[in-house]
Amino acid sequence: MNLQQLEYVAALDKYRHFAKAADHCNVSQPTLSTMILKLEEELGVKLFDRSRQPIEPTQIGALVITQVKQILYEINSIGKIVEEEKESLTGKLNIAVLPTIAPSLLPRVLPIWKKELAGLEIHVTELQTSRCLAALLSGEIDMAIIASKAETEGLEDDLLFYEEFLGYVSRNEPLFEETVIRTTEVDAHRLWLLDEGHCFRDQLVRFCQMKGLHERQTAYSGGSMEAFMRLVESGQGITFIPELALEQLSHSQKELVRPFAMPRPVREIRLAIRQDYSRRKLRDRLANLLRAAVPTSMHKLQTGQHLA
Question: CA-CA 20 to 30 A from 242: which of 46, 70, 226, 274?
Fold first, then answer.
């Protein structure tokens, strides 16, 4: 058993396809396949069920792969510990961001990262909350920008800032004539909302105590916030947007924005890591840069705001 074999096993588990896993590892498919087969022969068990498409781990293979990922994470941590002791902002950073945060936050922070973290190779991926937490635990990513506490064993998080929810109302809606949105006036049948599993949706539904969302006349599964905004602009219904999106709106688009009446719902934007993550100084530096990218008014919970 050697490190190379473990890396091949982790890659095959990630891609569930020999050719894709081999390409990721920069080796030929026969090489990767042979090395994994030799490991299976050494262990005396099959790690993958090759009769299935896509390939799946066997029951014992899944247990072995979990340990393989932990071993690779610990090995990769050695270099991170050295970099941390050098107080070096170099190396590679894999960070995940929620799809409801990325479009409005990344344009603000990427220029800052480019200037202040020039020696760091940053890879950004959009993932929903549950996938962010799983990827952190597996070591697939180093950090995640999420919109709730990371209440998962083995993880921790830091508060970055607070962000309000805002209504985006078409000119054909009665609410367009109002200056604020009251939760009792929100018609669930007129809403365009993200699918279940997005914390942006879940927090709003909970705050507004909305029911009957599944009864909307026109269903739109898998829709994005940007797609729903275009529907509202065409005169179709209501949706919600995060506060940071305001800066990207034109004058005519801003005319469709309506704040909530007090208490105004907000979400916590947090930076999550594994509890055993070694590059604490890098985490602190990144958190400070993220806070600097948003208005200072968002750093604290304001009067009239309430966590959704």
Answer: 274
d(CA 159, CA 170): 33
Q: What is the CATH number of the domain that holds 118?
A: 3.40.190.10
69 and 109 together in one domain: no
Query: Are 219 and 182 found together in one domain?
Result: yes
Instruction: Specify the number of domains making up the chain.
Output: 3
Domain boundary among 54, 81, 108: 81
Give the integer Cα–Cα distance in Å for 234 and 236.
Answer: 6
At how many degrees (to 10) do helices 280-292 and 59-85 cross? 80
Q: What is the DSSP string of 165-193?
A: EEEEE-TTSGGGGSSSB-GGG--GGGB--
Hey, which residues does 26 pair with through a beta bridge?
none
Q: Is residue 174 located within the same domain as residue 251? A: yes
Q: What is the pLDDT of residue 217?
A: 43
Task: Give the closest residue to 199 by CA, choosing from 307, 119, 289, 115.
Answer: 307
Residues 172 and 151 in one domain: no
Q: Which residues of the chain, if any, have pLDDT below 70? A: 83-88, 196-197, 209-222
Amino acid 186: pLDDT: 84
Where residue 44 falls (left for φ over 0; alpha for ψ -120 to 50; beta otherwise) is left
94: how many CB neighbours lie within 10 A of its CB?
Answer: 17
**In the beta sheet, which residues pair with residue 306?**
265
Whether 74 and 274 have beta carbons less than 8 Å apart is answered as: no
Torsion of CA 228, 260, 102, 159, to 10 degrees: -160
- pLDDT tens-digit readout, 208-251: 766 555 444 455 666 788 999 999 999 999 999 999 999 999 99
The answer to whether 179 and 204 have CB atoms below 8 angstroms apart is: no
